[in-house]
Design a protein that fits this description.
The chain has 348 residues and is of the alpha/beta class. It has helices at 69-77, 80-85, 89-95, 100-117, 121-124, 144-153, 170-180, 196-208, 261-264, 267-279, 293-303; strands at 17-33, 36-50, 53-59, 133-134, 136-139, 159-163, 185-189, 211-215, 235-237, 256-259, 283-286, 308-309, 326-328, 331-333.
Length: 348
């Protein structure tokens, strides 16, 4: 079991019944980041049933690891006998490596236990009562004019993150978004697209426009470029960190660890990553790979312990689940009945 995780089991609930469904959720418009454009979101939903209770978990996987809904299903089907025999939290972490397949199973397990125990997940995990959180809203990489217009449409936002691509156009993109929203916290996400030279050239613009965070500037295999960087703006690691075992090697190189449940393999590992990062003197951020509200709900609990929250995935979808998270005054609100409570009952 992950260090510090609650010692929970499903002892007494008997065998589990596992269901896996693939779904597609259209995006309102194509969403572009460095090296990739999303048009339709493919997810899997895992349901675990025991007695009259059921728990659900959603995963999309990690696109840069070539995950697909079909590949996630294959990984879970390979461990179906062990899962349906009855699995405790510790055993579940050992069944699959970090990634989307384990995320869906892990979150479904927690949701199921909330119904079986009559306790919400936040209480089982030793967390405080969850509160609404300031979340970033993302402007996909586009022309400066379009990104500025997108930022203005987020009229309620308190924090905005813009996707950059390492191109010379990035400077104008930053200026356009800042001009559109001079009042918000601003972060940029390079998705591995910068070099030391391109970042150095862009840095004066980032400082001038009061950018507060630079996310994953360099490629994963170029983490050495972070050594001695001495950035005046905090640096966050995203693609460079998958699970808690990656955190110690980044201490002294970055300032923030971006935790995503699809990367690390679920709520259990995510909570362990928060503890590991803080033990190394690093701040934490919770992010998402886009997803419905069912995917945001467990990440919302992680966000209660994070300095930066980036849980805007559902705003890019043409439709969402019921009940759903809501966004008001720049905050994400998560209803108790969505996931992780004795009254969970999310529908498509």
């Amino acid at each position: 079991m992950s260090e510090g995780a609650p010692a929970l089991t499903n002892e007494g609930c008997g065998p589990l019944h596992l269901e896996i469904v693939k779904e597609q959720w259209p995006l309102t418009v194509p969403f572009r980041i460095a090296g990739h454009t999303f048009e339709v979101l493919g997810v899997i939903v895992v349901t675990l049933r025991a007695r009259s209770a059921l728990g659900r978990g959603e995963a999309v996987g990690v696109y840069y690891r070539n995950d697909t809904a079909s590949s996630l299903v294959e990984r879970i089907e390979a461990v179906r006998p062990a899962v349906e025999k009855g699995v405790c939290l510790e055993q579940l972490q050992a069944l699959l490596p970090p990634g989307g397949a384990r995320n869906a199973l892990d979150c479904a397990w927690w949701d199921l236990q909330a119904q079986l125990s009559g306790q919400p997940v936040w209480e089982m995990a030793g967390l405080g009562v969850p509160k609404p959180l300031v979340t970033t809203f993302t402007c996909g990489a586009d022309t400066p004019e379009n990104m500025g217009a997108a930022a203005r449409r987020y009229s309620h936002a308190r924090a905005i993150k813009l996707k950059l691509t390492g191109a010379s156009l990035d400077a104008d993109r930053v200026r356009a978004v800042r001009e559109a929203r001079p009042d918000v916290w601003l972060g940029v996400d390079a998705n591995q697209s910068f070099t030391r030279a391109s970042l150095a050239a862009l840095m004066p613009v980032l400082v001038e426009n009061q950018v507060s965070l630079i996310e994953q500037p360099f490629p994963v295999d170029k983490d050495a470029l972070l050594v001695g960087l001495q950035s005046p703006i905090p640096i966050a690691a995203d693609e460079s960190v998958q699970s808690r075992t990656d955190i110690p090697k980044l201490a002294g190189k970055v300032d923030v660890i971006n935790i995503k449940l699809d990367k690390c393999g679920g709520l259990t590992e995510a909570l362990s990553m928060v503890r590991a990062a803080h033990a190394c003197g690093l701040e934490t951020m919770v992010g998402n790979m886009v997803g419905t509200s069912l995917a945001m709900a467990p990440a919302f609990l992680v966000g209660q312990q994070c300095k930066v929250v980036d849980l805007d995935g559902p705003v890019f979808l043409a439709a969402d689940r019921t009940p759903a998270v809501t966004y008001e005054d720049g905050l994400i609100h998560c209803p108790a009945g969505l996931w992780g409570s004795p009254i969970s009952g999310v529908t498509a």
